[in-house]
User: Which sequence fits this backbone?
């Protein structure tokens, strides 16, 4: 490389540096705007965060502050001391442990049997052709739109007739039935995306329908099954309408009924309520925080329901 | 034996109509299936004809006829002493059993004809297949049975019953109720001024509530998702974790907390906070004016509902394929342009159907109203109709059923909800992929 050429390159380099500097200068006003925009976004996000956390702060404050009603919590939390006594009261002065057990039984059984029944029917809807398929799918879709408590009066009579009144299992049957239409559709859409060639190959190898279901379809549908297992757990877990209507004796009370009864127009046991609420809400909050990535995808998947 | 050239189609049809499963057994060598079908028909005949003639045991005929007369004969004599609600539910169940039986009949005839067609094509009748094969082939029936039986008894029958009660005068104080035709509809839709007024105001508020609640949560969630989508926001995951909290907390808990914070006495935190900043002099009773209470319902519902749409928008944003963005970038589009012309339209397009589903959800959103205000405040109409200022249709139905035992009017309202939601349900079905691809 001769001298001339090197000079040329040096000059070129200088030129390009100059150009870059020029661009940077030209860009700088834009950067100011970007910074301002960023600050505004942060301010907005922080403001929303405060609004979101606001009631939670007082729930926590209530659970650990001495006193009984909402008036005993200070505006700036924890000005009057700190106590664990409400948690002890829950288990000594109320039947919280029993309520918790009842709610857990109802929610767990509902979730398990919903998923089993819905996955089985979804598999049949997805893989078999039969006469009543269209009307059945259609009616499941229509039923999904109506809240099950519209038929509350009849459910009361039916449950009374089969001896399920004031029994946890009566409630569980109602919840499972109410969950089936929606869950069947969700799982069916999911199974539809599992290639049918897999089950066909297994069938050629002599696998029975039950085996194809248990060893191929069910494992493939697992993400959706888990998602629906959770949603069919949470709904009955904190339901108020049916337990209030169909469970009557104190030994059958659920957490939702117990908590609700602590705060009304006439009664204010906010601190006890807050303590009881924390026990049920914290596991959910931790769970949702941990699985938020998965939920974003699941919800987006559920949105484009097929 | 039947011929395989298709000429015996009418014979198959005739025999399968004559008795369920007869063609299967006589001509088609489907003995197992045929016996099951024949058994179904035999049971049906026993419980409609035999038990009716003998006069003992459950009779489908009597169940239906008693439903019409409530067990009272033409001579005024009571021959069915059961409570009227039991008579009614048995009647509905009997009707549903008849319906299911007819469906089975149609299916059995169709199945016989299809089997015959197959025989005509292949010229070969498959003999008995052995127990294991038969069980395997009936798998769909066993797999569907639990779901269908449960839905039938705990969803469909109750809904039919609820609809029927609207034509009776059933209340808790009137256990031996009777048919009254469309009296209840007349009473509520114009017959009684107070009830008509209450209905009008509840329906208007329900629709307004559903529209505003959906709109605020949808755009609230979308805006938050958009604000955080800028990848220069390094703390986005932290913010997202905070914003997800209202979605995680059961609404009965969060709404009761809000109720307590907004307590109208000097104890309420919000009142005390406002007073300590000298913004107000005396505690404000937030739920005493209808418009204030309604405004708070929508505001607090925004608090509870925006995270769902935020997650949804984030999900659709991340699912937009990177190729599209890449292509736009190569074409020289700026970030803002990509967002405005690609991301936003796609997110809106994908989440738009959910606006309608969310509208339906909000029409039925019992918890957001009942756990927060319990329907309060009272209005002039509340003493007669039990409908309060923030009551939506479903909370009103709940009060009429559980607290007041006015089943007849609750059922009229339930029918109203059906009528409003049915078009949505059908629309929802028609937009599914299964429907569009002609699969069902």
Assistant:
């Amino acid at each position: 490389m001769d001298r001339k050429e090197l000079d040329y390159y040096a000059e070129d380099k200088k030129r390009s540096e100059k150009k870059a500097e020029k661009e940077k200068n030209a860009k700088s006003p834009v950067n100011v705007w970007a910074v301002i925009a960023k600050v505004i976004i942060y301010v907005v996000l922080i403001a929303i965060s405060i609004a979101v956390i606001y009631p939670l702060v007082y729930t926590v404050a209530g659970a650990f502050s001495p006193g009984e009603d909402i008036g005993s919590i200070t505006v700036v939390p924890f000005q009057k001391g700190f106590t664990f006594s409400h948690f002890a009261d829950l288990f000594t002065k109320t039947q919280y442990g029993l309520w918790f057990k009842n709610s857990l039984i109802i929610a767990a059984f509902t979730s398990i049997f919903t998923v089993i029944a819905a996955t089985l029917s979804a598999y049949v809807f997805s893989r078999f052709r039969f006469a009543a398929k269209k009307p059945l799918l259609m009616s499941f879709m229509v039923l999904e739109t109506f809240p099950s408590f519209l038929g509350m009066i009849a459910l009361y009579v039916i449950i009374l007739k089969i001896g399920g009144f004031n029994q946890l299992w009566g409630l569980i049957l109602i919840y499972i039935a109410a969950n089936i239409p929606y869950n069947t559709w969700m799982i069916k859409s999911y199974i539809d995306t599992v290639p049918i060639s897999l089950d066909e190959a297994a069938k050629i190898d002599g696998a029975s329908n039950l085996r194809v279901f248990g060893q191929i379809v069910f494992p493939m549908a697992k993400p959706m099954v888990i998602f629906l297992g959770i949603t069919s757990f949470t709904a009955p877990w904190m339901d108020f309408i049916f337990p209030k209507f169909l469970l009557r004796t104190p030994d059958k009370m659920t957490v939702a009924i117990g908590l609700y009864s602590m705060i009304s127009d006439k009664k204010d046991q906010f601190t006890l309520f807050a303590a009881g609420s924390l026990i049920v809400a914290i596991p959910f909050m931790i769970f949702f925080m941990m699985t938020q990535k998965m939920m974003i995808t699941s919800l987006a998947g559920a949105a484009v329901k097929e | 034996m039947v011929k395989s050239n298709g000429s015996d189609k009418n014979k198959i049809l005739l025999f399968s109509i004559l008795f369920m499963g007869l063609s299967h057994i006589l001509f088609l060598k489907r003995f197992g299936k045929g016996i099951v079908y024949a058994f179904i028909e035999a049971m049906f005949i026993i419980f409609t004809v035999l038990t009716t003639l003998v006069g003992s045991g459950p009779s489908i005929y009597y169940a239906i006829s008693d439903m019409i007369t409530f067990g009272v004969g033409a001579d005024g004599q009571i021959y069915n002493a059961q409570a009227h609600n039991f008579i009614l539910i048995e009647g509905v169940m009997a009707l549903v059993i008849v319906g299911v039986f007819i469906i089975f009949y149609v299916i059995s005839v169709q199945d016989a004809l299809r089997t015959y067609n197959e025989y005509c094509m292949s010229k070969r009748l498959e003999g008995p297949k052995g127990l294991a094969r038969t069980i395997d082939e009936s798998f769909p029936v066993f797999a569907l049975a639990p779901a269908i039986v449960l839905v039938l008894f705990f969803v469909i029958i109750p809904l039919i019953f609820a609809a029927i009660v609207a034509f009776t005068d059933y209340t808790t104080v009137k256990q031996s109720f009777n048919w009254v035709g469309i009296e209840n509809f007349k009473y509520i839709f114009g017959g009684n001024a107070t009830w008509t007024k209450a209905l009008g105001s509840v329906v208007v508020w329900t629709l307004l509530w559903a529209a505003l609640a959906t709109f605020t949560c949808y755009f609230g969630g979308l805006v938050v998702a958009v604000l955080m989508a800028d990848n220069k926001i390094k703390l986005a995951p932290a913010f997202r974790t905070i914003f997800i909290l209202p979605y995680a907390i059961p609404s009965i808990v969060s709404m009761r907390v809000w109720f307590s914070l907004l307590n109208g006495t000097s104890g309420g935190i919000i009142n005390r906070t406002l007073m300590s900043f000298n913004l107000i002099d005396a505690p404000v009773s937030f739920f005493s004016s209808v418009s204030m209470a309604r405004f708070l319902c929508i505001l607090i519902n925004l608090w509870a509902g925006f995270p769902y749409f935020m997650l949804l928008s984030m999900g659709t944003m991340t699912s937009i394929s990177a190729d599209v963005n890449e292509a736009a970038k190569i074409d020289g589009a700026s970030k803002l342009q990509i967002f405005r012309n690609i991301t936003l339209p796609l997110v809106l397009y994908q989440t738009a159907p959910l606006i309608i589903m969310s509208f339906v959800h909000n029409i039925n959103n019992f918890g957001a109203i009942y756990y927060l205000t319990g329907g309060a405040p009272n209005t002039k109409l509340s003493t007669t109709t039990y409908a309060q200022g923030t009551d939506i249709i479903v909370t009103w139905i709940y009060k009429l059923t559980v607290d007041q035992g006015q089943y007849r009017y609750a059922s009229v309202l339930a029918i109203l909800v059906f009528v409003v939601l049915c078009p949505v349900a059908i629309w929802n079905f028609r937009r599914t992929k299964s429907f569009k691809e002609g699969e069902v």
